[in-house]
Hints:
The protein is of the alpha+beta class and 179 residues long. It has two domains: 2-100, Peroxidase, domain 1 (Orthogonal Bundle), CATH 1.10.520; 105-178, Glutaredoxin, CATH 3.40.30. Helices cover 63% and strands 16% of the residues. The protein contains eight helices and four strands, in the order H-H-H-H-H-H-E-H-E-E-E-H. A four-stranded mixed sheet has the order 2-1-3-4, sandwiched between helices. A hairpin with a 2-residue loop joins strand 3 (149-154) and strand 4. Helix 1 crosses helix 2, helix 1 (2-20) packs across helix 6 (88-102) and helix 2 (24-39) packs antiparallel against helix 6. The longest helix has 19 residues, at 2-20. It is elongated.
Amino acid sequence: MQESGVAKRYATAAFELALEANDLDGWQEDLGTAVETMREARVAAVLQNVKVPRAEKRALMAELLKRQRPLVLNLVLLLITKDRVDIAGNIVGEYERLLNAHRGIEVAEVVTAVPVDEGEKAALSERLSRLTGKRIILSTRVDPQIMGGIVARIGDRVLDGSLRERLSLLRRNLLEAAR
């Protein structure tokens, strides 16, 4: 959990700099490029090797990211200096969450028992948008164990309209009534 808090602090600082520069999308693109570069097999091998001096790691990233915004490069170099390269992906995820919140967008993960078509996705997105008052970006996955209905996760909230949950609730109600 501590790493998550650190990633949030870095992402918040990056977001504030991007907001101040009125360059939110540019920062998002450069942060994503930086993380992709850091995850490339050869680069990751160097960054994770404790025998490679930090100065060499910094020089490598400075060369690979020389076309990125200078402050994004500075962030990457700071992560190397602080031995925090492993949280770079979390920083990008948190930055995107902040960007979405700034734009009034929520990401919702919807689980269904069977695949849903594009029309059903649009209807779900619209319904969740009315519920939250925000524009919804929907990701879906199938889990036959919910038996039917949907389970929607929007940020910290879970809306469980699955058949499995309804049956569980019915069971609890029957057990309580039998007492």
